[in-house]
Amino acid sequence: MAEPAQQHRLSAGLARRLMGDWRVVVGGSIFAVLAILAIGASLIAAIDPLEQDLLLELLPPAWVDGAEPGMLLGTDSLGRDVFSRLVHGSRIALAVAVVAGVLTATLGTVLGLVAGYFGGLADSVISRLVDIWTSFPPVLLAIILVALLGTGLHSVIIAIVVIDWTRFCRVVRAEVMQQRRMDYVDSAVTIGLGRIAILFREILPNILPLVIVLLTLEMGIAVIVEAILSFVGLSLSSDTPTWGGMIAEGRQVIHQAWWVMSFPLLMVVVTVLGFNLLGDGLRATLDPTLRR
Fold first, then answer.
1. Which is higher by pLDDT, 2 or 174?
2. How far is CA 146 from CA 112, 153, 236, in A?
3. Which pLDDT tens digit goes with each residue over 4-60?
């Protein structure tokens, strides 16, 4: 009975530390709002984001003279509701952030574990691969990959995974090389645990907080990459509401209708800032060396 009680106290203490860090609270709140917008997009924004009405083109937001009732953030050059497109665009942003982030973290972490623990030939091959990969400009590589694979959400996700797995691999490899010198690893070897068991049952849980922090930061990067690819027309179709696509459309009418470009740009900035704050707060809370 003592062990569950101790685990409960540790969990309660961790929760208090997390809630006591303003970065975790602000970043987590932004992530929660984004998730609510994405999940409840059809309920929150009842107007069809694809519905066009040229009689309503470039109408200003609701608080500006000349606004149309019901068009909270105005309309774009095709008369489409900006608020509705923003909300539905959050689905694309969140899907790319979560799926690409998790896949990138999984691939990079596994390769980093193998390179850091086994060393030798495995470490040499993976390290050289990382060096080759990081020699290419990431955004340019993403554009080339999507151009080769074809436009679509799956191509964007694959491109992000291909260009960003090295970030996880390098950090995890360095951490595993430190962890394998720890006493708990020697104890696991002494009691007869196999190398795979030690790697995934002993070392991985100890570096998991670091992976979680990297994952939150990667999710912000994924949002930026998707916005860039949408901006240059290499993400989804032009009709599909994406924040990058909206920024590209708004750039053409920025002098007549500032709101078409400003609101999606603000959403990208706030979302990325939220992920970065969440990552910094989790790192300060979960990393014991930073709490000293």
1. 174
2. 26, 10, 11
3. 555 556 566 667 777 777 888 999 999 999 999 999 988 998 888 988 888 888 889
Where do the domains of the chain lie? Answer: 22-291
The radius of gyration computed from the CA coordinates of the chain, to the nearest angstrom, equals 23
> Which own/partner pairs from 196-203 qualify as long-range (CB within 8 Å, at least 24 positions apart)?
198/117, 199/113, 199/114, 199/117, 200/113, 203/113, 203/117, 203/176, 203/179
Amino acid at the residue 176: V
Evaluate if residue 292 carries a pLDDT over 50: no
22-291 to CATH, choices 3.40.50.300, 1.10.3720.10, 3.30.420.40, 3.40.1190.10 = 1.10.3720.10
Question: Is it the case that residue 289 has pLDDT exceeding 60?
Answer: no
